[in-house]
Amino acid sequence: MKKLAAILCAVSLFSLPKLSYAAYSQYNIYNSIQDAYAWMEENASPLSSTDYAAADYYITAVARMGFNYNYSAYVNRAETRPSSTYTDAQRLVIATTACGSVWNENALREYTYKNLRDNPGELAGALITLDCGGYKVPEGSNINRDHIIVTLLSMQLQDGSFEGDVYTTARAVTALAPYINTQYKLSTGEHKNAEYTYITQSVVLNAIHFLEGAKGGDCGYGTVTNTANVIIALDAVGVSADADPGFVTGNLSPLSWLKSQQAEDGSFNGSAYDTALAMCAMTSHLRAMQGLSRFYDFTANDTVDISAAESGDPHDLSGDSSKTEVKKAVITEVSPPAPDEKTGEYGPFPFVGPVQSDENSNPTPEPVNETATPEPAAPSSSKGWAIVIIAALILVAAGNAFVITLYGPKLREIIKKIIDKTKK
Length: 424
Known about the structure:
The structure is a single chain. The protein has a three-stranded mixed β-sheet with strand order 2-1-3. It contains 16 helices and three strands. The relative contact order is 0.15. By secondary structure, the protein is mainly α.
């Protein structure tokens, strides 16, 4: 029954036409982007701001819209900018790649994902970073693209989330979207000596169901960061954040919630960061409505048809982005990565997957239990009688009144026999 439900969910999300509850046309969305763009240019100084996150998201949105801009000035500044975390570095690489820069693969590895194994948000970011420019993992690396994917797949919790939060789950869906038609089989491994199959479609579906259940009564996710990332994730897998019944209630949707945060001056909450991230989400959705490549896929080199958007009918709600086609899965066999240079281990979880499965099943991955209590060893025969006596005495002393009332006389008789026997 559970398997049937998962299959029906797959059909409902990816195969059937979506009922259109869309509230916003391409014209509406384009005008919101334009207003946000004007506010950023006037108030946020993106090319000189010390708010690097806002600048990175902003330049990525501008590039994905295809606006004329001084991209070289941003790239020149970015080349001398420090990045203290993997997340900072990943965001910087994505933004500069959107501007047309190409990173050296070895530098990319050192900068954004070397030895990154224990954080699903950063793993998702590493995968998005690699895929945004079609980057390859250098030969000889102790971790490759398949290892990143399988590790991320293995980190899904039983409720379908990643780390139990909206942001990380949305990022994971965005990262896994290009692999929706794949399965990964861990072919060998030291741990439990078994094969495990990770079905990307099943993992993504479970994550989407988590996001569906996590939305608020206003169909938003509490913050611009969460809601914008959910919209980008849904666009990436062909689920409309403004039309899919699972994410829409009446005239409310994640997109309507995001739009409600935009002030009359064009900003979102008066924040450069929120405004830039909202621009990314709206650009993602506009691209999806026009049938263009995913927001973080720069390899197609396609941009928004601005003339169609700005001259469109404000009441024309066509352009539903629900078009992802799920094909027969391609199974990729993955060998365990080389052990980490420092720890000698290879992952946050030792690649212990959900359950063994065939290509037609849709399992919900079980969380890895790393704190299971081992079974106690059997007592040695030389100490057997002593342990029996002590255990019996403790049982009599600590037993509750009910047990003692029923079994006290028998226990005392048994203990007396044991003591008499040991005296002989």
